[in-house]
Amino acid sequence: MSRFAAVGALGTAVNLLIMAVLVQSQIDIDYLVAAVVAAEISILHNFVLQERFVFRDLRHGSNPWRERLVRHLLFNNAEALARLPLLALLVELMHVWALLAQAVTLAIAFVARFLFVSRVVYRPALVEQSFRGRAVRKHVKIPA
């Protein structure tokens, strides 16, 4: 979990940096649009680092690469979409600075992301004994 947290911290920094650049740029991008753009970039960034540094030992015993990417994108985009109303609530009603509000929503969602990624995206293959006593790998398909 410590490597996942390190990747998450770096992803959070990337997310907040991109959001800050977009919000404070001359184009005057709305903070919600900037949050979505920053989320998309940091989601892909985190997937690459998780593949390389966090779950590299589980890559070959879990789902194929494309399936891991699709599951990662689907969950993280749904999670990012679910965070938007909280972000708007913090900024519009509670008058929290948009970057701080984004950091708060990212921190709140950390545990959910870890549980999903570790248990669904990189789920290890089950090992069963065959009738001859040899270990057999078996993948359990999760209905989409």
From TrEMBL:
Membrane-spanning ranges: 96-116
Subcellular localization: Membrane
Top-rank taxon: Bacteria
Annotated GtrA/DPMS transmembrane domain residues: 3-121
Topology in membrane: Multi-pass membrane protein
Cell membrane keyword on record: no
Keywords, in A-Z order: Membrane, Transmembrane, Transmembrane helix
InterPro entries xrefs: GtrA_CellWall_Glycosyl, GtrA_DPMS_TM
Main localization (coarse): membrane
Pfam families the record matches: GtrA_DPMS_TM
Protein family according to the UniProt entry: Belongs to the GtrA family.
Protein name: Flippase GtrA
